[in-house]
Amino acid sequence: MDALVLTVFLFLIPVFFLLTRRKKSSERLPPGSLGLPIIGQSLGFLGALRANTAEKWLERRIAKYGPVSKMSLFGKPTVFIHGQAANKFVFNNDGTSFTSQQPESTRLILGDRNILELSGEDHKRVRSALMLFLKPESLKRYVGKMDEEIRNHLEMHWHGKQKITVLPLMKNLTFNIICSLLFGVERGPRRDELIECFRHMIEGIWSVPVNLPFTRYNRSLKASKKVQKMLKELVCEKRVQLEQKTTSPLQDLITCLLNIRNIDNEEELTESEILHNIMVVMIAGYDTSSVVITFLLRLLANEPAIHAAVLQEQEEIARSKSSGEFLRWEDLSKMKYTWRVTMEILRTTPPVFGGMRTAIKDTEYGGFLIPKGWQVFWAIPMTHNDGSIFPEPSNFDPSRFENQASVPPYSFVAFGGGSRICPGYEFARIEILVGIHYMVTQFTWKLCADNKFSRVPMPVPTQGLPIEIMPRKPMN
């Protein structure tokens, strides 16, 4: 009998310990609810994004649960954190406590070997490869080609028109720039088919990952396969051209990636790494720059004083050029005020609302446990609209960025931060500045719709921002 009691007692000790441990772990989790399986708070969050009330949606969570709370987004348990300290915590622990695994819907559409997914040495290797093309020293040689693409766009879609819709045209422009500069795909049926598949693909990136017929997610997965097939054919063609020495290793991003070997061990990028990172670059260059240019045009229509100052700066540059001469890298450095206006647009209307990381080990923040495998979510507007960081945040004030060193670290995060700061920053800067230069010096415009916008998840102004355009008189 004593032996039986002892056996039962010894059996119950680990059970008791396990239950106690689970209870303590549960007590250390942030407050909040995970909601329904798979769906969680995804539909509520996406609905708030579309209604442009996502920041208020998060503020209500903060008021209810405090600065750290749990929820479920896109099929995974998630901890929401916010503020300057939270941004610093996430960016400084990247690769040690967190990895940049994206939601399942994003990962299956874009592939698992893209720079958003990789960590450690793999991330450094792929990022270094991309930066060989995207660094300023390399991009200088492509300013003229980007200038030519933008002039062609305005000639085809603006000149001779009385009314245009800005956002779809800007997406058309940025995709054509990507095809030309990054992929070496000229105008024609191939480019048209690629952009059509690409548009279907990106529709489901931020969606509930339910792979059933007729769902947005299902359509995006099918489109992703088509895009990858087309890109694979393109990569094969570029590889043959390089082997036959009929193209330059710096002709475009694809030839650059194909020609790169790791300095230490001469390891080439895998085909999956090339394909998946091309797709990420496509999305980054297509969506973000087109949104920023659209909201710049919207702002300039609403703010005559800012428009006048931008126009004056750009006309001075235009006067320094001979007829038909392309802009050069040196001209972009003179567009200081225009870039400060752009930075303030990125503060008030960041194209990307927030970001995700995945905990690779149990991690503590704010006195709470973030379990291994859970997502961490933070939202960019939470610091961009913080009055203690940016006084009177509802006011549009480009002077905030006259001295960028005065902006507190980890507060302006439109391009991310830490080791994962956007590698395409300089590419986007060139694209935006060259585009605005020709738009403000060649046209005037006025809005044909209200100033409202929604997020899907990128900001989309009412009706895509229809405007009436008038050609400007030639400068004396």
From TrEMBL:
<keyword id="KW-0349">Heme</keyword>
<dbReference type="GO" id="GO:0004497">
    <property type="term" value="F:monooxygenase activity"/>
</dbReference>
<keyword id="KW-0812">Transmembrane</keyword>
<feature type="binding site" description="axial binding residue">
    <location>
        <position position="422"/>
    </location>
    <ligand>
        <name>heme</name>
    </ligand>
</feature>
<keyword id="KW-0408">Iron</keyword>
<dbReference type="InterPro" id="IPR002401">
    <property type="entry name" value="Cyt_P450_E_grp-I"/>
</dbReference>
<dbReference type="GO" id="GO:0016705">
    <property type="term" value="F:oxidoreductase activity, acting on paired donors, with incorporation or reduction of molecular oxygen"/>
</dbReference>
<keyword id="KW-0479">Metal-binding</keyword>
<dbReference type="GO" id="GO:0016020">
    <property type="term" value="C:membrane"/>
</dbReference>
<comment type="similarity">
    <text>Belongs to the cytochrome P450 family.</text>
</comment>
<dbReference type="GO" id="GO:0016125">
    <property type="term" value="P:sterol metabolic process"/>
</dbReference>
<keyword id="KW-1133">Transmembrane helix</keyword>
<keyword id="KW-0560">Oxidoreductase</keyword>
<dbReference type="InterPro" id="IPR017972">
    <property type="entry name" value="Cyt_P450_CS"/>
</dbReference>
<keyword id="KW-0472">Membrane</keyword>
<dbReference type="InterPro" id="IPR001128">
    <property type="entry name" value="Cyt_P450"/>
</dbReference>
<protein>
    <recommendedName>
        <fullName>Cytochrome P450</fullName>
    </recommendedName>
</protein>
<dbReference type="GO" id="GO:0005506">
    <property type="term" value="F:iron ion binding"/>
</dbReference>
<dbReference type="InterPro" id="IPR036396">
    <property type="entry name" value="Cyt_P450_sf"/>
</dbReference>
<dbReference type="Pfam" id="PF00067">
    <property type="entry name" value="p450"/>
</dbReference>
<keyword id="KW-0503">Monooxygenase</keyword>
<dbReference type="GO" id="GO:0020037">
    <property type="term" value="F:heme binding"/>
</dbReference>
